[in-house]
Design a protein that fits this description.
The chain contains 14 helices and ten strands. The chain has about 290 residues and is α/β, with parallel strands linked by helices. It has two domains: about 170 residues, 3-Layer(aba) Sandwich (D-Maltodextrin-Binding Protein, domain 2); about 100 residues, 3-Layer(aba) Sandwich (D-Maltodextrin-Binding Protein, domain 2). The strands form two sheets. Strands 2-1-3-10-4 form a five-stranded mixed β-sheet, sandwiched between helices. Helix 2 packs across helix 14 and helix 4 packs across helix 5. It starts with 6 loop residues before the first helix and ends with a helix.
Amino acid sequence: MFRKLSYYLIGASLLGAAQFASADAMVIGGKDFTEQLLLTSITEQYLSHAGVDVKANSGMGTAVLRKAQENGQIDLCWEYTGTSLIVFNKITEHLDPAATYAKVKELDAKKGLTWMAPSQVNNTYAIAIRASDAESKNIKTLSQLATALNGGSKLTLAVNPEFPARSDGLKPLSKAYGFEIPREDVIKMDSGLVYTALKESKVDLGLVFATDGRIPAFNLFVLADDKQYFPSYQLAPVIRDKTLAANPKLTELMAKLTDKLNNQKMAALNAQIDVDKKSIESVAKSFLEENGLI
């Protein structure tokens, strides 16, 4: 389930969030894809049950959400370490997961943001292909993909709208592996549609997220990142310092929640929504109940 919001609606929703925040409610923000919409609902239900006055505001783009949090319109959101490192802080040095977390924690502290205890979820970007094609075309790594492309293979790639322009996106990936996909063969679409396009053979390759449950469900194969291009995208809640100071119990509350999350569990939860077509709210509630969090 995905939400497409116009800039007008985003602006209006952020204004509403700011007004709600002024009444001492904590505003939880989220991005516009399944995992983020789910995490927003999980956090809203969890904290509400714990007695925290909260309001959810999800469905935003990455840059909009970050700006809203820095401006004080969003108090808490779930972010990925690689996004903060590369997109927000412009660090190009390749760091291991622990060093990446430490670096973004240090840099974002200067902006009044606290990275809380991280989960074991690493939702890194990946390039996927149909499993049958991985076998028949002998493309199982990104280096083998580069060899195929440079050898004349014409392969179409589905990506979300922001990936071609990201500083950790398509251009630097192509440079790292030494291949080029013509612009007309790069098809932009909502992230959630990429998996279906791959499944239905409308494209040959797709940009996916490592924790997406549709990868095994649709019999897709993730190409090995054999040069370790993609950075760590460890998932953690990020909160405004002022919000945390006013609600110190959130440190322990959020740690209990993040402790229950890992790649396998996240993929299973995502699959319930994207494959089994369950509602985000019901999946969130079941997760919290099954883990004794509500």
